[in-house]
Write a structure and sequence with these properties.
35% strand; 318 residues; mainly beta; 3 helices; seven-stranded antiparallel sheet
C-alpha cells in the first residue's frame, strides 16, 4: 500500500487443538492426502487406504473443515488468530469469524470464509485472520483463489475494510523482516478513495520501507486467482494471469514466512447497526522453489480436486 504501514503486530496466536493420535500426525507431517468425502459435519476423515504423499515441495488445502475447532485444522498447520494487537482495530481478533461453509460458486463446493463485523465501536468490532504455522515458505509460487467483496453481506456500506492475502515473517521485529501483500480496499482508506488493490513488497516494518503499486478504480467483486512468485531475486504479483507488479533488489523476502488470510478494518468511520463483510478462500497452493504459470496452477489444482485430494504438505519443515 502507498499509505503508512499498518501498526506493527504483537502476535498472540492460540493453537486450536492439542495433537491427536500419533498415526494421524505422522500422516500429516508426511504430506498424506485425505479423501474427498466428508463426515456430515463437514470435517475431514482419513482415507480408507494409504494414498500417495503427493509431489515434493507442495502445500495444498481446499479448506474442507467443520469449523475453527476442527482438530484437522491445527493438525494441518493452520491457526485462527485470537490474540491482541493490530492492524486495524486493535485487540478485536476473534475465531468466530472463521467458518467453512458450502458454496456453490466455489471449486469443490466449499470455502474458508473470513467474516469481519462492526457496529462502529471497538466493543462491537470483530476482525478475523487465519495463518499457517510450522511450514516455512520462501522461494516459489504462492497462489489462492479468493472471493473479494465490494459491499457488506449485511448492513450499510462505507466501512474501510481491508481484504488481504500475504506471506509475512513470524515477527515484525526480525532483522530479516519480509512481507508480500495483496490488500483490497473496496471503499478506500487512509484518506484515499476506493476501490483499490495494493500490491506491496516490504524491506522493513518500522520505520516503513517498502515499494508498492496500486490498481485503482477497478471493482473486483467476485472470484480471482491471486499469485505471488518469488524466484531469481524477483517478486511478481499477478491477478487472474495478468502481471500487476514486480519488485527486486532489497524488496524481496530475506527469510521464510507464514501464509496469512485476513479481513480487517482500518478505522471506524461511523456508528450504527452492525455490518458484516465476507472474504472467502476457495483453496491455497504453494510450490517451493518453482515458478508455476497461472495455467499450470489451475491445471494442478484441478487435478487435486479430480483425485479427491483435499490436503497435501510435502514442504520441508526447515
Amino acid at each position: 500500500m502507498s499509505q503508512p504501514r499498518r501498526t506493527p503486530r504483537r502476535r498472540a496466536w492460540t493453537a486450536l487443538t492439542l495433537p491427536v493420535l500419533l498415526c494421524v500426525l505422522a500422516a500429516c507431517s508426511a504430506g498424506g492426502t485425505l479423501a474427498g468425502s466428508a463426515a456430515p459435519s463437514g470435517a475431514r476423515t482419513p482415507s480408507a487406504s494409504p494414498t500417495p504423499s503427493g509431489p515434493p515441495g507442495t502445500l495444498f488445502d481446499d479448506f474442507r473443515y467443520s469449523g475453527p475447532d476442527d482438530p484437522s485444522l491445527g493438525d494441518h498447520g493452520w491457526e485462527v488468530r485470537t490474540g491482541g494487537g493490530g492492524p486495524g482495530i486493535k485487540d478485536t481478533w476473534s475465531s468466530a469469524g472463521a467458518s467453512f461453509p458450502s458454496d456453490p460458486t466455489a471449486q469443490g463446493g466449499r470455502v474458508l470464509q473470513l467474516q469481519s463485523s462492526t457496529d462502529g465501536t471497538k466493543q462491537g468490532t470483530r476482525q478475523v485472520e487465519v495463518q499457517t504455522t510450522g511450514t516455512p515458505l520462501f522461494t516459489g509460487t504462492f497462489a489462492a483463489r479468493v472471493h473479494l467483496s465490494d459491499k457488506p453481506a449485511a448492513g450499510r456500506n462505507g466501512d474501510h475494510v481491508v481484504e488481504t492475502f500475504f506471506p509475512i515473517s513470524a515477527a515484525d521485529s526480525s532483522a530479516n523482516y519480509s512481507e508480500l501483500d495483496y490488500e483490497y480496499l473496496p471503499n478506500g482508506g487512509w484518506g484515499a478513495p476506493g476501490p483499490q488493490l495494493d500490491t506491496t513488497s516490504w524491506f522493513k516494518a518500522d520505520p516503513p520501507d517498502r515499494v508498492t503499486r496500486a490498481l485503482k478504480k477497478q471493482r473486483l467483486e467476485g472470484w480471482h486467482i491471486m499469485m505471488i512468485t518469488f524466484m531469481n531475486g524477483k517478486v511478481t504479483y499477478s491477478l487472474d494471469g495478468k502481471n500487476l507488479f514486480t519488485s527486486s533488489g532489497k524488496y524481496v523476502p530475506r527469510e521464510k514466512m507464514d501464509m496469512h488470510f485476513s479481513n480487517w478494518f482500518i478505522d471506524l468511520p461511523f456508528t450504527g447497526d452492525s455490518r458484516t463483510w465476507n472474504m472467502k478462500v476457495n483453496w491455497f497452493y504453494y510450490k517451493a522453489g518453482e515458478s508455476v504459470s497461472h495455467a499450470d496452477v489451475q491445471k494442478t489444482v484441478a487435478g487435486f480436486y479430480s483425485a479427491g485430494t483435499n490436503f497435501i504438505n510435502t514442504v520441508p519443515k526447515s
